[in-house]
Design brief:
Helix content is 36%, strand content 16%. The protein is an alpha/beta fold. Helix 3 packs parallel to helix 4, helix 8 packs parallel to helix 9 and helix 9 runs parallel beside helix 10.
Length: 309
């Protein structure tokens, strides 16, 4: 990894999830020391604070898109700040906040990738595929819509310019999936999204799956955006999330994925999403997310401190 600058960007968005608490996620990650571990790994870290929603007075309400205006405001703000951080030769790390924030962060990275003539790939580490739109969503919660949005398959409002760079759905790799709506299943198959559910991880192994993803991105000369949802992990490992689904990735599987991504040198940006400190166990999930981030940016097994009993 050649870039040694990191931009921390807080996104205290919880309205996309339909449940209170995720807005405290950025503060919890800061308290858990995300900046400190990155500095220990010899990165220059700039914390840009929390973004505020951009103006959305030009938009009109959309049916079955709950909290449309606040989510749209965050989308616009995050698209701009993520793009600018990447253009300033820094690695944006978005501290969330619910997964609707990726409507903005991934769109910003897509614009940056297009500006330097490279394809953007997205590694979506999540229990859910998040490929809904207002037309297909059973709940109307917008944290279930970001992948369809940044792939151009959920243009339900002019939140961002219609001619913006999109992510090719075939460049999206979803790992850890274990909860998919029926209509979503049809849409991800129709659009060619690459899905590795927990059965695939059990049968093929995390190392084999990650190796294939990394080789694909490397051969294309692409940039890789990693979007890490707390519910990618098994709830016994990280309970601080409002959308728990049993049977998720183990602590070691997740660290292995992070270590392999670090070795690849391909990661250009990162989301840390859906952390809900209100549901956490004494900061356990926040600390684990910080540990995963440390693995992604260079901490090795032998470097990890021993925890007190």
């Amino acid at each position: 990894m050649t870039v040694r600058k990191i931009s921390l960007i807080g996104a205290p968005l919880e309205e996309g999830s339909g449940r209170r608490g995720a807005a405290m996620g950025p503060a919890a990650l800061r308290i858990a020391g995300v900046d400190k571990v990155l500095q220990e790994l010899k990165f220059t870290v700039t914390d840009h604070g929390d973004v505020s929603p951009a103006n959305t007075d030009d938009l009109t309400p959309v049916a079955n898109a709950k909290h449309f205006f606040i989510v749209s405001g965050f989308t616009r703000a995050l698209e701009a700040v993520t793009y600018q951080a990447a253009a300033d030769d820094s690695i944006p790390i978005i501290l969330g906040g619910d997964h609707a924030l990726s409507m903005g962060s991934v769109s910003g990275m897509a614009r940056y990738a297009a500006s330097i003539g490279k394809p953007l790939f997205v590694l979506w580490m999540d229990a859910h595929t998040d490929f809904n739109s207002p037309e297909t969503s059973p709940s109307g919660n917008m944290h279930g819509m970001p992948v369809a949005f940044f792939c151009g398959q959920a243009e339900f409002a002019p939140i961002l310019p219609a001619d913006r760079p999109m992510v090719d759905p075939r460049n999206v790799f979803q790992v850890g999936i274990r909860s998919v709506d029926e209509r979503e299943r049809e849409e991800i198959q129709r659009n060619g999204v690459n899905v590795f559910d927990m059965r695939a991880i059990d049968e093929q192994g995390m190392a084999n799956i990650m190796r294939g993803i990394i080789e694909t991105v490397a051969q294309a000369g692409g940039l890789l955006h990693v979007s890490f949802d707390v519910d990618f992990l098994d709830p016994d490992v990280a309970p601080g999330v409002g959308t728990t689904v049993p049977g998720g990735a183990t602590y070691r599987e997740a660290h292995l994925a992070m270590e392999m991504l670090c070795d690849s040198g391909l990661v250009s940006s990162l989301d840390l999403v859906e952390l809900n400190p209100f549901l956490d166990d004494r900061g356990k999930s926040a600390r684990i997310l910080v540990e995963m981030t440390a693995s992604l940016f260079g901490r090795r097994v032998l470097d990890r401190p021993t925890r007190g009993a």
